[in-house]
Write a structure and sequence with these properties.
With 442 residues, the chain is an alpha/beta fold. The protein has three domains: 3-86, SRP54, nucleotide-binding domain (Four Helix Bundle (Hemerythrin (Met), subunit A)), CATH 1.20.120.140; 101-292, P-loop containing nucleotide triphosphate hydrolases (Rossmann fold), CATH 3.40.50.300; 298-429, 434 Repressor (Amino-terminal Domain) (Orthogonal Bundle). The protein has 21 helices and eight strands. The protein has helices at 3-17, 24-40, 45-59, 70-86, 113-126, 143-153, 166-180, 197-210, 225-238, 255-264, 285-292, 298-308, 311-322, 328-341, 344-349, 354-357, 368-376, 380-384, 391-401, 405-426, 429-434; strands at residues 101-107, 131-135, 158-159, 184-188, 214-220, 242-246, 268-272, 280-282. The chain has an eight-stranded mixed sheet, sandwiched between helices. Helix 1 packs antiparallel against helix 4 (70-86).
Length: 442
């Protein structure tokens, strides 16, 4: 997530980390690099200009106190501005005081709109809601079948009607939802490869018919500034209430995430982070800003664990991570859980510093079986105390697991890197960096 942008920002901030104080010259030099990094990420030009101006204004003349270094202070300023740029706080779906709540979903073809409808329905179902999915995209081949298949996978009904136009389908779906007691109606509207007048008129007519409480625009985060331009066109016609960024687990440049709130004035409500129906997350600006600056996202990591295991087990896992006591035995216990939580690289990337540590290490998602075989070939004592794993023991483990010594060494090295990162975090370095800086403003 935002790997390229994170790397470029890190390089830019290196220019100021070795300085003893903040000056106009070294701040300007660092921010010139930050500006280039943001423009390379396809962030809107006007957004970049305001961002740089705001950071510069707040940094110049700012006194560095106590143990806080100039580089740390600059990171804090940029972090705060990134959070502000993306919306400051999470923005939830607004439920209607009287059911059903109507959520209209719009976007271009190929943005992941239909899949998002199912993901949102699944998320709401877990919260005790009873969603009804509405197949109002009658143009794209197999769009209705796709929604029905997704609905079947999450055990939720899909309303459709052969031969009817999208406006009539939406109208009848509302009547059906009231009759059967469905408290949320999610309308999947038709998309096109590009914006056209006919499409815009159709979605406007659907809006007038169902009076939605939420109008969400779904866009592909990999398209950068194009996504923002498209969102503007939809917003002018529909009056959007929020934006959804899909494919955030891919090679995302960051332009859409960092531009769309400032340009539209509309919140990003959700992000898609995978293909599965549970791969949807609320958008937390502060967590995304943290990941962009290489600080990780341990809160989301813990939340993902809590979704798969009970509260008691989640608390035990979190405590062991904090105390740097997580060992191979614990890892073995969590292998199946981790498989359900998503991409292993994304999960490890949520641990502060791990993105950098894993930069040149290939991670094959299919290697879970190999990792499990290596750990099972260790003795219980070795799993609990990886320090015992000397050369002869590693050779025995490789033979027992059907892998090479290099495979065993690689796993142990990755595990040790993770432990070091967690040890640094538990020593309070993150809190030390973020805490004192809160009082460094003018």
């Amino acid at each position: 997530m935002f790997e390229s942008l994170s790397e470029k920002l890190e390089e830019a901030l290196k220019r100021i980390r070795g300085q003893s104080k903040l000056t106009e010259d070294n701040v300007s030099e660092a921010l010139a690099e930050v500006r280039r990094a943001l423009l390379d990420a396809d962030v809107n030009f006007n957004v970049v200009k305001k961002f740089i101006d705001d950071v510069k204004e707040k940094s110049l003349g700012l006194e560095v106190k106590g143990n806080v270094l100039p580089g740390q202070l600059m990171i804090k300023l940029i972090y705060d501005e990134l959070v502000q740029l993306m919306g400051s706080s999470k923005d939830d779906i607004k439920m209607a005081p009287q059911a059903p709540t109507v959520i209209m979903v719009a976007g271009l073809q190929g943005s992941g709109k239909t899949t998002f409808c199912a993901k949102l329905a699944m998320m709401l179902k877990k919260k005790g809601r009873m969603p009804l999915l509405v197949a109002a995209d009658i143009y794209r081949p197999a769009a209705i079948d796709q929604l029905k298949t997704l609905g079947q996978a999450i055990a939720l009904p899909v309303f459709s009607k052969d031969g009817a136009d999208p406006v009539a389908i939406a109208r009848e779906a509302m009547d059906h939802a009231r009759k059967v007691g469905r408290d949320v109606v999610i309308v999947d509207t038709a998309g096109r490869l590009t914006i056209d007048v006919e499409m815009m008129e159709e979605v406007a007519n659907i809006k007038a018919t169902v009076n939605p409480h939420e109008i969400l625009f779904v866009c592909d985060a990999m398209t950068g500034q194009d996504a923002v331009n498209t969102a503007q066109a939809f917003n002018e016609k529909l009056g959007l209430t929020g934006v959804v960024l899909t494919k955030l687990d891919g090679d995302t440049r960051g332009g859409a995430a960092l531009s769309i709130r400032a340009v539209l004035g509309k919140p990003i409500k959700f992000v898609g982070v995978g293909e599965k129906v549970d791969a949807l997350e609320p958008f937390h600006p502060e967590r995304i800003a943290s990941r962009i600056l290489g600080m990780g996202d341990i809160i989301t990591l813990v939340e993902k664990a809590q979704q798969q295991i009970d509260d008691k087990e989640a608390a035990r896992l979190e405590e062991k991570l904090r105390k740097n006591q997580f060992n191979f035995e614990d890892f073995l216990d969590q292998v199946n859980t981790i498989k359900k939580m998503g991409s292993i690289r994304d999960l490890l990337g949520m641990i502060p510093g791990m993105d950098k540590a894993l930069k040149n290490i290939p991670i094959d998602e299919r290697q879970f079986a190999r990792v499990e075989a290596i750990i099972l070939s260790m003795t219980l004592k070795e799993r609990r105390d990886p320090k015992l794993l000397n050369g002869s023991r590693r050779k025995r483990i490789a033979a027992g697991s059907g892998t090479s010594i290099q495979d065993v060494n690689r796993l142990i090295k990755q595990f040790e890197d993770m432990q070091k990162m967690m040890k640094n975090m538990t020593r309070g370095k993150m809190a030390q960096m973020m805490g004192p800086m809160a009082g460094q403003r003018r």
